[in-house]
Write a structure and sequence with these properties.
heterodimer; A: 235 residues; alpha+beta; Ubiquitin-like (UB roll); Fumarate Reductase Iron-sulfur Protein, Chain B, domain 2; 2 domains; two-stranded antiparallel ribbon; 9 strands; B: 527 residues; Flavocytochrome C3, Chain A, domain 1; 33% helix; globular; binds flavin-adenine dinucleotide; binds FE2/S2 (inorganic) cluster
């Protein structure tokens, strides 16, 4: 199948973005956007549809199997993982853009460090040895599955980088901490959660169906709110 | 008081373990990695981590773990190192549990599963995403030390230079990939840069991040490498878009069976028939080789299948749910109801930077740990021993590094001559290496590989880093050539048996533009 791929690009240090369009053919029905980007960059000469020479496309990847979150981008308008976006399911015209909520470094690479900073600001670490009982094992496990890709932040109407509201990306690890510790040990985190997540969340739950890991964001949110804001025991 | 620093390159399991250990000692670390920890290869680890915790009523002991590791590795590691690893294994796992890894357990007692090359249940696991679960716990712990100011992360930084003089590390050069700026960091450094996946781009189960460039830099700076001929082909992998995807050994640990199809259409459970004691759970080198032979025989259909259809609902739900999801997602096939066609794929590198029991390299002030280091696994690594080696190795390296820690000197370089590797040279290098470093090797193939590598090296259009990569590639090829025997993951069709003469590690150093290869006793740490 032949694909016409429009990629939103930006020079390193630049402030304006522009589209480049490439042709890509593949007879492998399982080929993903990640495989396509790799193949384009491996071409001896990368030419766009007008035959003009272009520099390689910058993007981030690592695991190529939905386990690390590196390759999150916006494909045909939807935030998702490039290694999970199968070309044949996307149609012959494909638009690939960087996540829009984060500063663009170059092309499809964005700086998501704010997500990790926010986790630090919430003081997400154990204060004493973990105690995961059977009752909250599955909640703990599901929370630990978050790959920190940022798709949930991209789709959220309330999140912007550097804002007071930290967004869904900080909920799983808060939940994780709460399933492992006594609430009295992490009162400071609970307070910070109330301020930086609970207070800013408009409950639109647009993040509900976007998580590439299929994490039940609503369930985690409800449980984290119950424990951190209302002091309910989850253990 | 002046703060003392250690640089850690790589933020996977071994790098994080080193950072935690140093922070607890009050030593500061610069934790430098191409991408954040959440994206390191360690998050891909699935099946589990080994330690003789003996929670399953099988009377398991540390000495059996020691024996299995030595035997699986065909006695190519020092006994003292493996003894330390296996003795410390239970505590490593319990510490990870205390840090909040959701290991499968019954009322707090850890469940253990069977893994290859081991008769007793010894592998602690968190369903089939053990690496991800351990990493999440360790990242949380490191975050605490980041907040306390002990760990300074450099999460989009690449190691691009290692400066050694007179056998001593002077400094390292690091590039901020986002800004394009270069920095030099003085002081002691631990290399936790993972395995040599990047030499086999697109053909391994690992990550694209471990390009192998850091290893190539180290080799060319005079760091001694060992056992480079030993490359682990994992028996059960499948090709997906852009890479080999692993079907964890846990599938066989929980009862999955391998079979080929006879001409008559009947299944041939070759592992069970040939190896009645361990069957499908023989060490990986043996299983991959048997798969190679069975698929190259005209008596069978040329394919091998992994049959998991008889596994219980309980196993699918509580132990292998992630694996099933993954197979359905990438193969459009439900392993609960249909056998999965599998074939061996490159998975792990036993060879790497040679370190002593304290994880020091031959260069003073430079240490290594994790898959980057050649330690513990000999000629063939047992499943579950790698995460153990990474966590324990990172900790040991950190304990040694404490004495080298110095006030840090970070200098922004106004100019640096960066060398960039070319995709087409990388592909050529990969294809040449694949031609000579398969599961079954012959002198003829290896010689051709060496000739082609020399040809590639003589090209005039090579960048400096590509030259360094080819030098390290040649070191792999020449190690395979020199080992005229079969042992562990290195099988020579022209020398199909092991030879006592070669019960030694192959050590390669690069000096004055030449590669020097020696075989030395695994017990010996010096030249
Ligand atoms: C699919 C899969 C499943 C596995 N399952 C198991 C299992 O069940 N049990 C087990 O014991 N083992 C398993 N392994 C092996 C094990 O996961 C790895 O060997 C181990 O996690 C390696 O950890 P590490 O710290 O050495 O390196 P990694 O986790 O690979 O981390 C390497 C780090 O180095 C950084 N880096 C690399 N190059 C540079 C550079 N030039 N500059 C700066 N930073 C750099 C990377 O960014 C990264 O942070 C598995 C491996 C794979 C691929
Ligand atoms: S590359 Fe890891 S999630 Fe896509």
């Amino acid at each position: 199948m032949k694909y016409n791929v429009k990629i939103l690009r930006r020079e390193r240090g630049g402030s304006s973005s522009f589209f480049d369009t490439f042709c890509y053919s593949s007879d492998n029905n399982a080929d993903t956007v990640a495989a396509m980007l790799t193949a384009l960059n491996f071409r001896d000469e990368l030419l766009d549809i007008n035959g003009e020479k272009k520099r390689p496309i910058e993007w981030e990847c690592s695991c190529l199997q939905k386990k690390c979150g590196a390759c999150a981008m916006v494909i045909n308008g939807r935030p998702c993982l490039a290694c999970d976006a199968v070309l044949s399911a996307l149609g012959s015209k494909i638009t690939v853009e960087p996540l829009r909520k984060f500063p663009v470094i170059c092309d499809l690479t964005v700086d998501r460090s704010i997500m990790f900073e926010n986790l630090k600001n919430l003081r997400l670490w154990l204060r004493s040895d973990a105690d995961i009982n059977d009752k909250c094992y599955s909640l703990n496990y599901e929370s630990s599955e978050c790959i920190g890709c940022g798709c949930c932040l991209e789709i959220c109407p309330n999140f912007y980088a550097g804002g007071k509201f930290f967004g869904m990306a900080a909920v799983p690890l808060t939940m994780r901490l709460l399933t492992e510790s006594e609430i009295k040990e992490c009162k400071d985190t609970a307070k910070l959660y109330a301020k930086h997540i609970f207070a800013g969340c408009g409950k639109s739950l647009s993040c509900k169906n976007v998580c590439p890991k299929g994490i039940d964001t609503e369930k985690l949110l409800v449980n984290a709110n119950a424990a951190a804001v209302w002091g309910k025991r989850i253990k | 008081m002046t703060e003392r620093y250690v640089n850690i390159i790589g933020a996977g399991l071994s790098g994080l373990s080193a950072a935690v250990t140093l922070s607890r000692k009050g030593i500061h670390t610069n934790l430098i990695s191409l991408q954040p920890s959440e994206r390191a290869q360690s998050v891909l680890a699935e099946g589990g981590i080994n330690g003789a915790l003996d929670t399953m009523g099988e009377n398991d002991t540390v000495s059996e773990h020691f024996n299995d590791t030595m035997k699986g590795g065909c006695y190519l590691e020092s006994e003292s190192a493996v003894r330390l690893l296996t003795e410390n294994a239970p505590e490593v796992i319990l510490e990870l549990y205390r840090l909040g890894t959701p290991f499968n357990n019954e009322n707090g007692k850890l469940s253990l599963r069977n893994f290859g090359g081991q008769k007793k249940k010894r592998t602690a696991f968190a369903k089939s995403s053990t690496g991800k679960m351990i990493m999440t716990a360790l990242i949380d712990e490191v975050r605490k030390y980041e907040a306390q100011g002990f760990v300074q992360r450099y999460p989009h930084h690449e190691l691009v230079g290692i400066n050694v003089s007179h056998g001593q590390l002077r400094d390292i050069t690091v590039k901020d990939i986002y800004t394009g700026e270069f920095y030099s960091f003085g002081g002691c450094t631990i290399l936790c840069v993972g395995g040599l996946n990047g030499f086999f781009e697109g053909m391994t189960t690992g990550t694209t991040q471990n390009t192998g460039n850091a290893a190539a830099l180290a080799f060319n700076a005079g760091v001694r490498f060992a056992n480079l001929e030993f490359i682990q082909y994992h028996p059960t992998t499948v090709q997906i878009s852009g890479k080999r995807m692993l079907v964890s050994e846990a599938a066989r640990g929980e009862g999955g069976r391998l079979y080929a199809v006879k001409k008559s259409g009947e299944p041939y459970y070759f592992m069970e028939e040939k190896y009645p004691e361990l069957g499908n759970l023989m060490p990986r080198d043996v299983v991959s080789r048997e798969m190679y032979f069975v698929t190259h025989s005209s008596e069978y259909g040329g394919e091998v299948f992994l049959d998991m259809t008889s596994l219980s609902e309980e196993i699918w739900q509580n132990k292998l749910s992630d694996l099933r999801k993954e197979i359905i997602s990438y193969m459009k096939l439900d392993p609960k109801t249909a056998p999965v066609p599998v074939s061996p794929g490159i998975h792990f590198f036993m060879g790497g930077i040679r370190v002593n029991d304290r994880h020091e390299t031959n260069i003073k002030g430079l240490l290594a740990a994790g898959e980057a280091a050649c330690k513990y696994h000999g000629a063939n690594r047992l499943g579950g021993n790698s995460m153990l080696g990474a966590v324990y190795g990172g900790k040991t390296a950190a304990e040694t590094a404490e004495k080298y820690a110095d006030p840090s000197e970070k200098i922004c370089l106004s100019q640096y001559n960066e060398s960039v590797s070319s995709p087409s040279i990388r592909t050529k290098l990969r294809d040449i290496l694949l031609g000579g470093l398969g599961i079954v090797r012959s002198e003829n193939e290896i010689r051709q590989m060496i000739d082609k590598l020399n040809g590639l090296l003589s090209r005039e259009d090579l960048s400096e880093i590509d030259k360094m990569r080819i030098e390290l590639g040649l070191a792999m090829a020449e190690s395979a050539y020199a080992r005229k025997e079969s042992r562990g993951a290195h099988f020579r069709s022209d020398f199909p048996s092991s030879s006592e003469k070669f019960r030694k590690i192959s050590v390669v150093s690069y000096k004055n533009g030449e590669r020097i290869l020696k075989f030395i006793s695994a017990e010996s740490e010096g030249e």
